[in-house]
Design goal:
The complex is a heterodimer of chains A (about 240) and B (about 210). Chain A is of the alpha/beta class and about 240 residues long. Chain A is about 20% helix and about 30% strand. Chain B is mostly beta strands. In chain B, the strands form 2 sheets. In chain B, strands 1, 4, 5, 8, 9 and 10 form a 6-stranded mixed beta sheet that branches. A 5-stranded mixed beta sheet of chain B has the order 3-2-11-6-7. The radius of gyration of chain B is 18 Å and the shape is globular. Classes of the chains: A alpha/beta (about 240), B mainly beta (about 210). At the A-B interface, strand 3, strand 4, strand 6, helix 5 and strand 11 of A face loops of B.
Amino acid sequence: MAEVNDVIPETHRVKTLLLGIPGWPGHLPGQHVDVRLTGEDGYQAQRSYSIASAPDAFHVSLTVERISDGEVSPYLVDELHAGDRLELRGPIGGHFVWTATQGGPLFLIAGGSGIVPLMAMLRHRSAAGSTVPAVLLYSSRTLEDIIYREELSNLVGKGDGLTVAHALTRARPAGWAGYARRIDQPMLAEVGFPASARPRVFVCGPTSIVESASQLLLGLGHERSLIKTERFGPTGG
Amino acid sequence: MSKPPTSRGFRARPRPEGQGKRVPPGQHEVSDFPVLSAGPTPQTSLETWTFALQDGGSLLAKWTWAEFEALPQTTVVVDIHCVTAWSKIDTEWQGVTIDALLEAAGLAEPPEPYAMIHCDGGYTTNLPVEDLIAGKAMIATRYDGESLTPEHGGPARLLVPHLYFWKSAKWARRLRFMDQDEPGFWESLGYHMYGDPWKEQRYSGD
């Protein structure tokens, strides 16, 4: 059982729920929880959400994107407020996980709200004082859709070996210096580590991005066993 | 367990009549077909594809794509249930039942009580053999009348619709019979050994 301690707006469609969970057993960066809502008539609905916080953070946080025709996410994003209680189960999943002790280099590829479990890895990397070389390639629709934009910029500012490259696929502000197209092979080759460096690769986002990025990475010679994928689709809502 | 907290103002979306009977607890119906997998989708050529039956380490039978296509084909319309809480109603699949494979291999009955399915990409999942026979499971090669696409498990996937869908392993290449049950990929990572959606056997301990 979790209590919502605060709700933080991230973008116009995304909020972070800061949860207090008595007896939380701890989690690994990349794991998720199942959230179950029970209506006043007893109707229950359940969805999975990635944990956004590092393992040693004070709150367990979930970052949730509102899926417009969704059933659970609009409730979590628009209705929930501090003091509400949530039934949740977890942490779940032991495959799409990275800890600093596993080493690197670390190559993270995110589309949209697929950033969430990757952010848990980056927050953990920073909190653990890790200097493992890390690259995040993050595709968003517009500048305003970038989740954690300021925090990512601050993490890069620490100068501890993290690089972040943004790609905007729909609209760009004037003077935009990042990529202005969908993730493609030249982009992966340019920002990422060469296959010979054997980076640990984590790809998370909608199926279209995960499918194409993982195939392109194989094409660049990255080893299949080092590429881990997780998909967020509209049905996650 | 204590009573779950009620979420103030949370209501179900309207459901089609009778859906409740076909959607297991904690699941919701979807109209699209979500894709989930732990790594890059394998692109397996039909030229090199084979499907094998094994008893432990020994080969019982092996088919090329052309040989597999010549085996008796079965079409089923079933509901499928993913552990990530989506269910899809009335999905149509075509393939070769495990019964037909055993018969083609000249086996009167399965050699062992458990099985592990092995897939391109290294995925595995374990099942009791009784859940694979008597028409309960097939190696499916077509979905909705069309060749199974790689992202949905093509060329061929296991289909065991009465269990959570991670048991219906994509990119199936080898069915290995075992004398004892052993955990597969997700079963080693905290997921349930059996996975009955009607009992909500999502994770170990359920």
